Amino acid sequence: MKTEGGSTDAKRDAGERAAEEAEDGFVVGLGTGSTTAHAIRALGRAVDDGLEIRGIPTSFQSRELALEVGVPLTELDAVDGVDLAIDGADQVVDDPDVTAHGALIKGGGGAHAREKLVDAAADRFIVVADPSKLSDRLERPVPLEVRPDAHTVVAERIRELDGEPTLRDAERKDGPVVTDNGNLILDCAFGPIDDPDALATRLSGIPGVVEHGLFVGLADATYVGTEGSVEVRRY
Ligand SMILES: O=C(CO)[C@H](O)[C@H](O)COP(=O)(O)O
């Protein structure tokens, strides 16, 4: 379930601007997706120019790209902390008048379990986005990474919460998407989500759910590329 739309230039502007926040000695969380890929490429160029960082990939995709562009890698359990995480989002609440301002839906690439681990561990978590991701509330389906043997019982619990679960199908492979962790993805439509924090708590409590794609209270800022400039939302 990749987010559709969004200009490449806007994504590049956001990603490259966020990469400028990395400093010598930083451990940097490397998110997943097309917007973050611009940040990883910019970090690779900065490393070529002498910046000394280590990256923690959040997916097979971000690991491969980091290796390709020369960002030295480490692991979450091999470092004392994460200084900065840069990651994309599928939807971002952009309304300073609501408590959910800055809450996210992630997992369009099925990488949200590792992304949440790394983003939550970071001293500073910057979301990179183009304007198509901004919304006054979260309403896209929420991806749930679920254990393969649990997908039918989790789907039933989602229906009890008035959600509509859909097992994510793979493209160019018969059957479902299998995550980097060997699990399945249920995309769960709840309609407009008035209280993401409350829904996040309920989803976390369902046995068999490895991780859900609601990121509430985690982001420190969103860098929004607007084709030529970058608007910064701080939380
Ligand atoms: O959460 C994610 C992957 O699980 C991505 O960050 C999210 O889907 C945004 O991707 P893109 O920058 O390609 O629009």
UniProtKB/TrEMBL annotation:
Pfam families assigned to the protein according to its UniProt record, in alphabetical order: Rib_5-P_isom_A
Active site: residue positions: E115 (proton acceptor)
Catalytic activity, as annotated: aldehydo-D-ribose 5-phosphate = D-ribulose 5-phosphate
Pathway: Carbohydrate degradation; pentose phosphate pathway; D-ribose 5-phosphate from D-ribulose 5-phosphate (non-oxidative stage): step 1/1
Taxonomy, superkingdom: Archaea
Region (Disordered): 1-29
Any one Gene Ontology molecular-function term assigned to this protein's record: ribose-5-phosphate isomerase activity
Gene Ontology terms: biological process: D-ribose metabolic process; pentose-phosphate shunt, non-oxidative branch
E.C. number: 5.3.1.6
Subunit and partners: Homodimer. Homotetramer.
NCBIfam families per UniProt: PRK00702.1, rpiA
Biological function: Catalyzes the reversible conversion of ribose-5-phosphate to ribulose 5-phosphate.
Similarity comment text for this entry: Belongs to the ribose 5-phosphate isomerase family.
Name of the protein in its database record: Ribose-5-phosphate isomerase A
Organism: Natrinema zhouii
